[in-house]
Design a protein that fits this description.
Layout (H helix, E strand, L loop, with lengths): L5 E4 L2 E12 L4 E11 L2 E2 L8 E8 L3 E8 L17 E4 L7 H7 L4 E4 L3 H9 L11 E4 L11 H6 L7 E4 L4 H8 L8 E5 L2 H6 L5 H9 L7 E5 L8 H4 L3 E5 L7 E6 L3 H15 L5 E4 L3 H11 L2 H4 L2 E4 L5 H4 L15 E4 L14 E6 L10 H8 L10 E6 L9 H28 L9 H9 L2 E2 L7 E2 L1 E3 L5 E3 L1 H15 L7 H8 L3 E6 L9 H27 L4 H12 L4 H13 L5 H7 L6 H14 L6 H9 L8 H14 L8 H11 L1 E2 L3 E3 L7 E3 L2 E3 L26
Parallel strand pairs: 6-13, 7-12, 7-13, 8-10, 8-11, 9-10, 11-12, 14-19, 14-24, 15-17, 15-18, 16-17, 18-19
Antiparallel strand pairs: 1-2, 2-3, 3-4, 5-6, 20-21, 22-23, 25-28, 26-27
Helix pairs in contact: 8-9, 9-17, 13-15, 17-18, 18-19, 23-24
Length: 721
């Protein structure tokens, strides 16, 4: 073959072929050069002449991206390709059939999708002739009325030549463990809607694990896909070849923009107006806030409208929405008025018309919506005529003037510092075991937990994570999330004019209005009631969790149960379970579950944790011996004396900075049960303030530890002060 027929630069590959073309003018057959393969994807070149543009960085040496033009705007990717190209595929439009293409391609495939609903739908529709077999195997949590064979049986079924798996992120590790790393080269891995990982990873840490697995597959057998993809902080993703899908015509939308000082009140009025004017139409409200957004709106509606409401959200938020919780069924909205959180912003198809209301609130940066995200949400409607109407309700606030590039550099510097610190500890432990003898996984988890940080008004996001090899790494998707928040606060939501200006520039038809606000603050009694109901829901769920744990026979069984419950319970109780797992080897079950809920703030729990660990120290531990000597039970001491004695201990054994009286007394209470200040006479002098150590059981467990911390343990590495 002519070498000019092949372009292979960096990770880009283009293979040309000659194809006959009839020359009508001369009435002869001619040969033309057409694209046969693009990044290892077979092109249907006999049916289509694929037009591409190579974006060279340096001609013949390096490429930034390749654009290909859709021959028709309504075309699907399966009209062009037989298989999916490898690399980062920027679709730039929803509904062009990327997952369908790969699921129908003649090879083994694993497709990771954002929602269980989509995975279920694709698998269900692949049923073979009303049998109990499916061409596509769904792997994930159980679905009522949907029974699938085991992975083992599916792999062994010779009637299915190409194995097709569809999973959500949380189920990918289980699938890959069954397939085995040695067989990865036999599969093509597609991760759909990769931009959602940037938005959602802060509360779904397992999403970043997917990328760890992604890079275990050969570079020519993997792709990332999304309709709206920005830049990535992860340098490895930035190295992936980029394929841009270009369309001939734009898709302008008619958008009503309502700027409001009270987005909840405005949303309520807009919903009611639509229901009055169009009593039979459906409404979908996109709002990434449950207890402070969706629930206040629902509860503020008339009872007849509450009865037709449903909420699409994560399983962790299900307890908060109670009877309103629902799921997409057969690509239809479950109720006439349906709310959805970011869990459903991607990865679902809705085959019916509806009015769309999207809400962005600068008070909660995680609710902010980029212009691309607004497009993606609108793209959930798959009917030909599109949305019945689209409304965006938003507010704005002045933002501190910053240079985002400089903040990005600071975030990366902070992240690298944490990674270096964590990995240094690991290396020191290996090379100098006597220096960091007590180092364990708790320390590593602490680094992750306390790495959450906010920059210039963003939400708090963890900067580091533990990868699939248990190594501390930068949490790149979280960093992307911080940058997205910063960008939106600095641009689209920095003024009321910015969002309409941007949407107008994109060619949309924008109707901007300033919403009339009669009550600048949600009725306080309503929000108070919702807060009380939310708290009660958390407490009821916790009681149920405790009862399930109580029925377990031993610590190992309880830990397994706790880990499974942690996946489906509310965020607050997920934290409770993390803490329970951490301390259950020291404290008997009943005292632990009684005391632990009383210390639910981060600082409160750290104090509780420190108290437990000191209580659990071996009797011959140097710290316990020294403490007992300095603070004998029942002997009164004034505050100055206590502080002096404690600082000797605090500086000497623990190597911390000295404390003042005001600081020392609360700290002493972490180590022992200390009386309130009383009066006493010393040598006949007037009364002065004095304290007594009542016991060394600061938390009143009234029992002995189940396990003791060994005498040779360096507590400075374990305590959380």
């Amino acid at each position: 073959m002519n070498p000019s027929s092949i372009i292979a630069v960096d990770k880009y590959e283009i293979l040309y072929a000659s194809a006959p073309e009839w020359d009508k003018e001369n009435n002869i057959a001619d040969q033309k050069k057409v694209i046969q393969y693009l990044n290892n994807a077979s092109v249907q070149y006999g049916n289509i002449d694929l037009k591409i543009n190579i974006n060279w960085i340096e001609k013949g040496k390096s490429i930034s991206s390749i654009d290909f033009i859709m021959p028709q705007d309504e075309a699907k990717l399966s009209d062009i390709f037989i298989t999916t190209p490898y690399g980062l595929i920027k679709k730039n439009r929803t509904g062009i059939g990327a997952t369908t293409l790969e699921l129908n391609s003649p090879r083994n495939s694993i497709v990771v999708v954002p929602t269980k609903a989509l995975a279920h739908e694709k698998a269900k529709n692949s049923q073979i002739d009303e049998s109990d077999k499916y061409k596509i195997l769904y792997v994930g949590s159980s679905i009522d009325g949907f029974t699938v064979p085991t992975i083992e049986h599916y792999l062994a079924d010779e009637d299915i030549p190409y194995k097709k798996f569809i999973v959500v992120a949380d189920s990918l590790p289980r699938l890959l463990s069954e397939i085995g790393k040695e067989h990865y080269q036999n599969y093509f891995l597609m991760i759909d809607e990769i931009d959602a990982y940037q938005y959602d990873s802060s509360y779904r840490p397992t999403l970043e694990d997917v990328i760890d697995y992604y890079f275990l597959f050969p570079s020519a057998q993997r792709c990332l896909v999304s309709a709206t993809v920005g830049s990535f902080s992860n340098p490895e993703i930035e190295k992936e070849p980029i394929i841009n899908v270009i369309f001939n015509a734009a898709q302008p939308r008619n958008i009503i923009l309502l700027h409001s000082e009270n987005v909840i009140e405005t949303a309520k009025k807009q919903i009611e107006a639509i229901l009055v004017e169009h009593p039979n139409d459906k409404i979908l409200v996109a709002y990434n806030a449950v207890t402070r957004g969706i629930l206040p709106i629902i509860k503020s509606l008339e009872q007849e409208y509450q009865s037709i409401s449903a909420v699409l959200c994560s399983i962790k938020s299900k307890p908060h929405v109670e009877e309103y919780y629902a799921e997409i069924i057969d690509k239809h909205l479950p109720k006439q008025l349906t709310f959805m959180t970011c869990t459903y912003f991607v990865g679902i198809d809705i085959d019916e018309p509806f009015h769309l209301i999207s809400i962005a609130d600068t008070s909660y940066p995680h609710t902010l919506l980029s212009e691309d995200k607004l497009q993606q949400i609108a793209g959930r409607c798959r009917v030909i005529d599109g949305l019945l109407s689209e409304t965006v309700i938003y507010n704005s606030k002045d933002a501190e003037s910053i240079v985002i590039k400089e903040v990005h550099q600071q975030i990366i510097a902070d992240t690298n510092l944490l990674v270096t610190y964590a990995n240094s500890i690991t290396q020191v432990k290996k090379r100098f075991p006597d220096i960091i003898k007590p180092y364990n996984d708790i320390e590593q988890k602490d680094i992750i937990k306390h790495s959450s940080k906010s920059y210039h008004g963003t939400g708090y996001v963890a900067l580091v994570r533990e990868d699939i090899t248990n190594t501390i790494k930068p949490a790149f998707f979280n960093i992307d999330n911080l940058l997205i928040q910063l960008q939106l606060l600095q641009t689209l939501y920095a003024s009321k004019e910015a969002l309409p200006q941007k949407l107008n520039e994109q060619g949309h038809h924008v109707n901007f209005q300033e919403a009339e606000v009669t009550n600048r603050e949600l009725d306080r009694s309503l929000q108070t009631r919702i807060n009380m109901e939310t708290q009660q829901t958390i407490e009821d769920e916790r009681e149920n969790i405790i009862q399930q744990l109580r029925e377990s026979e031993d610590i190992t069984t309880r830990e397994k149960l706790a880990l499974s419950l942690k996946m489906i319970c509310t965020r607050q109780n997920s934290i409770f379970l993390e803490r329970f797992i951490e301390l259950q080897k020291y404290v008997p079950f009943e005292p632990l579950v009684e005391k632990l809920p009383l210390y639910d703030t981060p600082q409160g729990y750290d104090n509780f944790y420190n108290s437990v660990l000191f209580w659990a120290l071996a009797e011959d531990h140097a710290l316990r011996i020294s403490f007992n000597e300095r603070f004998p039970v029942g002997i009164p001491s004034d505050g100055d004396t206590l502080t002096t004695k404690f600082n000797n201990l605090w500086q000497g054994i623990l190597n911390y900075r000295p404390l003042t009286n005001r600081q020392a007394i609360p700290m002493i209470r972490i180590f022992c049960k200390l009386s309130e200040r009383t009066s006493m006479r010393i040598n006949g002098n007037p009364p002065i303030g004095a304290y007594k150590v009542l016991s060394y059981d600061a938390l009143d467990f009234n029992c002995t530890p189940m396990e003791r911390i060994p005498a040779n343990t360096n507590m400075t590495r374990i305590f959380r002060f």
